[in-house]
Amino acid sequence: MILTREFYLQNPMDATRQLLGAYLCRRDAAGNVIRARIAEVELYLETEQGCHAFGGKCTPRNDAMFMDGGHAYVYLCYGMHNMLNIVFGRAGVAAAALVRAVEMDGCNGPGKLCRTLGITRADNKLDLTRGDKMWIESNDGPPPQIAAGVRIGIDYAGADAKLPWRFVIADSPYISRPIES
Q1: What is the pLDDT of residue 73?
Q2: Which of 7, 14, 34, 118 has the least CB density, counted as fewest CB within 10 Å?
Q3: Which residues is 76 bridged to in the sheet?
Q4: What is the pLDDT of residue 15?
């Protein structure tokens, strides 16, 4: 079942954790659907320095984060890697989860995931509740065991870099990096 707007409007921490085990679905140019289980995500809120919208600052780059939950926020990192984020919450308050890995060969990092699935900035602001080009389907099995740790690559965020807001399926071999104890 495609996740509804109500799913994305819930508490961002709860929604982010519930993405684990759900399926990222992408329709390719030939009409084929690629369906891959989400194995790793990181939460970002405008109240912490690791977030592109820190302090509520809306820019042309991050304005998708200020939309109603259920939209894609795709940005370019280091001028070469597209990164897919899932927006949560009500319009006007920025919250999103970076999808770092899905259970599919070649998708164990956010840049690799986007390259393999053909996700580009043209997908920015895509409504994920419509089920057209890209969407997320609910987990059809038992909830996975989740491990949590610090997010990757945001050392500049001071104390916020230590928040344990990176979540992985504990036994997945597809995550980008093991959780540090």
Answers
A1: 98
A2: 14
A3: 82
A4: 97
